[in-house]
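Fold it.
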Amino acid sequence: MVRLRSQEWFEGRDELGPQHRAVLRTLGWTNEFFAGKPVIGIANSWSELNTCNLGLRVIADAVKRGVIAAGGVSLEFNTMSLGEELMKPSAMLYRNLMAMEVEEQLRSQPIDGVVLLGGCDKTMPAQLMGAASANLPAIQLCAGPKTSGRWKGQEIGSGTDLWRYWDAYRSGELSEADWQALEASYSASVGTCNTMGTASTMAVLSEVIGMMLPGAATIGATDTRRLALAEQTGRRAVELVLQGIRPRDIMTRAAFENALRVFLASGGSTNAVIHLLAIAGRLRVPLSLDDFNQMAATTPLLLDLLPSGTQLMSHFDSVGGVPALMHELRDLLNLDCHDVSGVPLGARLHPAPPTAVRIIRPLDEPLQHGPTLAVLYGNLAPGGALIRVSTASPQLEQHRGPALVFDDYHSMLEQIDDPALPVTADSVLVLRNAGAVGVPGLPEWGAIPVPKKLLQAGVRDIVRISDSRMSGTSFGTIVLHITPEAAVGGPLALVRSGDLVELDVEGRRLELLVPDAELERRRASWVAPPKHRRGYPRLYAEHVLQPDQGCDFDFLRPESDEDLEFVAPIVGRS
């Protein structure tokens, strides 16, 4: 018989036991209903400030049905809700804070296991980071992708089509009336982006790594199958507690290797690199940027999904979703990994229907040959930088051009559409002081707009480099996450307009073609930007690690196996 940690709260015979039990009686529960049953927390990131997660209120009710049906009791609690659209400067600034909140709620409350309800892209990794550290039995369920809007008879891809039509609007190819009509059609329901942006990428990777039930990542937010899956998730949460299965049993090195394969084969968001490194760091699972480079060399693009392809998440779901994609990758996967369902990976894969449109390509007939992602090194990025090759322009992957430097995001916005901007199609746009420490928070500013004068001349892509991130729905020849960032004295801080920058994707290089002696002279006069004055942003800037370590806080990454031990609360008087 499993000893439940919640019994420390509810089975006491001194004055504390009745006090704790009386709290649940306030909910209208009798002692016979909850006594001796697993308590399943439902960590809900529902919020009206985050329409990606707005459907989670109904999903939570379905989870509760499953928990009760399996012999448990559920206690729902709300957490922060990180929505990239409204939260400024970036939801990424608060990912670590949400991870801390999840961890401490699990540690301090009478919870035996937890269902993690997330949606928009930072909520999913934040929950997995917190669950990894707390290591109580846990299972995740995503909000699901939104229904596709339609404009002029065409489905609208979240983010990707917005950026594309924005360029058309800026260049004068799209009228004001059309732009307004597009806005009205853009978001057709609650749910996350319907492209392979960061939210979809992290949902897919949560399923692959074993923390969600098979098929959960791709079912639409308003599809009733998601409610049925929510009920199953609640049932399974109780079983995980009774079986003693915890996140560290599931999120192993082999599971992360599977996640890397699927991430690369799907053309997933570059943000997932940071999140996977952060989650692995909480578990002391060895994972580095070199792992991404090595696996990218043998993992082609198989999934025809925007922005790397042409289709949307509903189409991916219609041909079998993640299990069908993994079926095509099965020879590259660790098939003996177990997920929260308790079934080994090899037993839960299935091919796409034979009549299906080829949204998922065979391994020997990929959508694109070659790697979908490259990690770049060089004197501009000693700690690494990323480029999503699957959405870059092939003719720009080997490029040498003069830098045009913007010292911050706001000055870039002020200048980018100036007709007098000294830019050509050969220029390399450089944005700095936009990283984890520099803002702080590493916002999605790396997809620098193509200057208006170039758009009007027919240029649709240009090499752009920064120490920032970009939305997973974005596209172009964009180098991101340059490490170390400019604000901590990285080489990006030393670049001047006119310097030659060389990008060599095939050679995995990013170089500033300036003599070392001149760089040292510039470094001697470099001055660090001022620190944020107070509060959480100051804490963030003082303790955040660089992107090659997942941008977690230095004090949250365990330094030894002893640091992984769960510290239980003392159940006494408050």
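The chain has four domains: 37-147+189-347, 149-188, 376-524, 535-559.
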